[in-house]
Amino acid sequence: MNGAQSLIRSLADAGVDVCFANPGTSEMHLVAALDQVPEMRAVLCLFEGVVTGAADGYGRMAGRPAVTLLHLGPGLGNGLANLHNARRASTPLVNVVGDNATYHKRLDAPLESDIDSVAATVSGWLRRTAAVDDLAADAADAVAAALSPPGRIATLILPADMSWTDVSWSDLPAAGTGLSGSVDVVEPAPVAGEVVAQTAAVLRSGEPAALLIGGAATRGEGLRAASRIAAATGAKLLCETFPARLERGAGVPEVERLAYLAEAVAGQLAGVRHLVLAGAASPVSFFAYPGVAGDLVPEGCQVHILARGPEDLTRALTDLAERTAAGTAPQLAPPGRPSAPSGPLTAETMAYTVGALLPERAIVVDESNTSGPWLPGATAGAPPHDWLTLTGGAIGQGLPVATGAAVACPDRPVVCLESDGSAMYTISALWTQAHQGLDVTTVVLSNGSYAILNMELRRVGAGEPGPKARELLDLSRPGLDFVSISRGMGVPGERAVTAEEFGAALGRALAEPGPHLIEAVVPPLV
Fold it and tell me: I need a surface site. Which of 56, 83, 127, 390 has the fewest CB within 10 A?
């Protein structure tokens, strides 16, 4: 057995069973080794940003890591934006990055680069294998690191000669031992009882308060506990602007997302004297604007941290609920759907159509950007579903994350709401969806511009755009034909310009298994 085989075998024994890959020459022994490990599914992506985004979507839904296979420093660099998003989402993820053979590095071959420095910008754990006999342990350590609360990116750099060198069977863990047998998983750290007690006292003080949740608190037991706390204490319940995974819909506790625009956040937090953070960061504006404060905590408001990072957020919220809301039930969203709209297709009628047709247990991947303001209200009473968002703000996330989510949950429909400019970053994800037969319905919201930048151009005070500025924000000359692009990658596509056409197309796509694309032509909001 060579090192590549031992690595793939060890990852599989640690519970990693999907490899998203865009390999090169230095990874060929790893590619060959995949055939020796039947438990490991191999998924080819045509660009490394799709590889890393798909691993992010998989980890968010599966709760365990997939492994990426990336080619040297340039391959890692191509995947960096979606690794940034995955880091912000606290997604468990293992990168395997091939490198030149140890004795070849000194020659400074064309693809030679400082992989370690690039990987360090997004990795919570980083190791370069130095001896082939260490590979099995390195693999187990990488998985354990990825699973460390609340979830991290673990990157293992593998010189090519480590892959082709033979390793003794005696150096490997027993095959089939599974996650508990080959990986020491770190448990979340308990939150001190006095911190829970102090937080309870703050929420019972009678002064206006808000509870801002993130991470594991946006789903499951943590979300139910947070809802109970808010209802019993009168605190305003908010979640972070871009949650990694938000459970919502009829029968699920309602929570309002913190707004993207700083001006809107000021309204949400107006009058709040105590802000309790549970798995969320203190709110700041996404960018600096001339003459505007970046810290969005209201003046005179005290910030209290219940739990963060590796701490047991769900248990802390459950304990806090027992102190402040014993015997109560969470406030659940009532069922209700909007009527299917008619007339021109706009961002608003698109949202109401999605709300009218969204299937039960859907996974919605939302990179709708400026076309999405009506989506939260339109889907609030739809059947229970998960909502995955653009956690790190690096666009080009939607299509890959939808791909990974569909691999993780093949029994659930995935709906990807994707803006046209963002779609072009990682459009080749459509090919992977077709190649794998994934049940993903992609709605490209085609308004022919980088609409959000038109808005930001004014907000930063850069003045009225001239012809050169307008040229850099325009996607209409020539227009992007997403139907042709989609069909060219093996995904059936159709275009909708009215609400009726969009409703009919969405209904057909949701009723038929496999990938579909709808180009929804909508006017820009800004």
Answer: 127
